[in-house]
Amino acid sequence: MLHADSFKQREITKEDTIPKFWLETAKKYWDKKVAMREKEFGIWIPVTWKEYYENVKHIALGMLSLGLERGDKVAIIGDNRPEALWAEIATMCVGGVGVWLFQDSLIDEVQYIIDHSDAKLIVGEGQEEVDKSLMIKDKCPKVMKVLWDDPKGMRNYDDPILINLREVMKIGEEMDKKEPNLFEDLISKGKADDTCLLFYTSGTTSLPKGALLSHYNMLTMGKNLMKVDPYFESDDFVSYLPFAWIGEQMMSISCGIQAGFTLNFPEEPETAQENIREIGPHMMFAPPRIYEQMVRNVQVKYLDATFSKRKLYEWAMKIGYYVAELKFLKKPIPLQWKILAKLAYWSVHKKLKDHLGLSRIRDAYTGGAAMGPDHFRFFHAIGVNLKQIYGQTEIAGISVVHRDGDIKFDTVGIPIPGIEVKITPDGEIISKGSSVFQGYYKNPEATEKTLKDGWLHSGDTGFIDADGHLVVFDRTKDVMILNDGTKFSPQYLETRLKFSPYIKNVWAIGDKKPYVTAVVCIDYGVVGKWAEDRNLTYTSYPELSQLPDVYELIKREIIKANQDLPPVAKIKKFVNLYKEFDADDDELTRTSKLRREFVEERYKVIVNGLYSDLENIHMDTDITYEDGRVIHIKTDLKALDVQ
Asked: What is the pLDDT of residue 8?
């Protein structure tokens, strides 16, 4: 019988590795418990720990037969799915190093990472990943084989570098019959300080750097996080964010293997939200953009609701916000408000949580970028225990987190056990602990700059408040100096504006400028519906974004966001961009962070126009699509004053 409280942490030694923990967990649960599920053709297909073990063993021995040796790199690209995770664990079991790439990486990005990492094997999902691999194979001579597992569209592919993952597993199965102890012998040779993952950081200003993380880094981070928020073998977690993002590895690998909870893989990336609702996970970790989209979905439902439903929602949210504020302030909740909160929960909040897939959530986390206070308050108002975390790839994902009952939406909490955080005299956040990475691959200069005197230098500006909470101001290089000399965070302005359902993304400008301006990317779906309800005609995103009525709509949203800001920080002028910011155009990183230096150079005509008397700004530029197509755009943008 499995119990929710049966997980007990043990100390992590210098002999421990992820495969050793994985092996212990697999043998503990074997065929008594589901290790993972994947939805295929509308059915959730379970995989026991025994099946998990057998699949990983056969892939590992198959990779060994293909020539993979200890320390070799294996590049993995594709959607979240069991086969990809099996390949990652198998790589570690052989003593290799996993290198994940984002599914939507352009060919130049794929080539750079495969070549720079010296990957010997590439594991791809299907035709798309195989095509990318074949396009770069001549420029990446260290690649020996490309493994694939989805047969759709692969019938006529016969390049000798290609091999089906099932064939690799058959080779491994034959090797296991000849040497039945080989697999576990390979696992036993690993040490905690061995490198297990090579993560390429998003690179907001330059080429991505490869961060080397050890088994000890990953395991201690997971253990220390679970000292704050324990996870249990009976828990469910939905793995839908890219494994190339440290946050997903943090939950699925670092915590998942130690706690033994069940991983669930969506049918497709597009069905993730629906599949999350079906599973009802116990914990969730996502960047702010995911939570922002959830709020936007609720706001759109509200706009489309009947008068009575809107009034009920407004009543329930008013109660939720008030009670949440009392909790933030650590004040007692009067009995009448407790009763009202129960009524609001059963009439509105419970349905909202279920609609968002958060019905069983115990701990929800956000990190990777700033989240606005409005979004944070919203989730606490509906009863979701949302916590801010702070960390980076170079510290295995997390170093600071909110605690239950001690949540301040303008901070990111206090350090997890085993991590020390302090502020340098010039305001930089630095950290020390067992999870700090080994350095950057082939980049000793960057390693020396980031790891100084045993401390990890984050490049972020912040301070520690009177309660010991860390306040992250912004990236040091991104902090704006306003026209009165005060420092201000552009991210704060941007997150405030993104609480509007009509605004998808924002770029706030104002560093050493006479006033603050903004470049706005509208939400095409929401604004399009708004326009149709008012019989406004349009045929495309560029046309919709430039409609006078849409400008007035966005102006009203900016005025709302300006209300609580100091006069010098208020947005005075804005333009609606003719497109959304896009990672394929290098405007965003693959984790959706704005590449400020790049967009400032690309859109310098817009910036100059915002700080001139021009009412119309002429744009002449290119748009790049994921398939490599380049479209030339000529258009005029209206620059509107905010009165």
From this structure: 57
Contact (Cβ atoms closer than 8 angstroms) between residue 402 and residue 625: no
Q: 1-30: per-residue pLDDT in tens?
A: 333 344 456 789 999 999 999 999 999 999
Q: Do domains 18-191 and 286-476 have the same CATH topology?
A: yes
Q: Grade residue 203 by pLDDT with cuts at 50, 70 and 90.
A: low
426 in Cβ contact with 477 (< 8 Å): no
Token pair recorded at residue 471:
């306040």
Q: How many CB atoms lie within 10 A of CB 503?
A: 26
Q: Which two tokens stand for residue 177?
A: 């019959």
Q: Is domain 479-641 annotated with CATH 3.30.300.30?
A: yes
pLDDT digits (tens, 9 = 90+) for 39-87: 998 999 999 999 999 999 999 999 999 999 999 999 999 889 999 999 9
Average pLDDT, the chain: 91
CATH homologous superfamily of 286-476? ANL, N-terminal domain (3.40.50.12780)
Taking the mean position of all CA atoms in its chain, how far away is CA 109? Answer: 18
Indicate the class that CATH gives domain 18-191: alpha beta
Query: Cα(271)–Cα(277) distance, rounded to whole angstroms?
Result: 10
Q: Report whether 24 contacts 52 (CB < 8 A).
A: no
Burial letters 308-343, b for 16+ CB under 10 A, else e: eeeeebeebbebbeebbeeebeeeeeeeeeeebbee
pLDDT at 372: 78
In the block, tokens 């400032």 appear at 600
Q: Where are the domains of the chain?
A: 18-191, 286-476, 479-641
Number of neighbours of residue 228 by Cβ within 10 angstroms: 18
* Strand positions, DSSP E, 6-72: 34-40, 43-48
Task: Give the per-residue pLDDT at 261.
Answer: 96
Torsion of CA 51, 57, 62, 66, to 10 degrees: 140
Q: What is the pTM of this model?
A: 0.85
State whether residue 461 is helix, strand or coil: strand
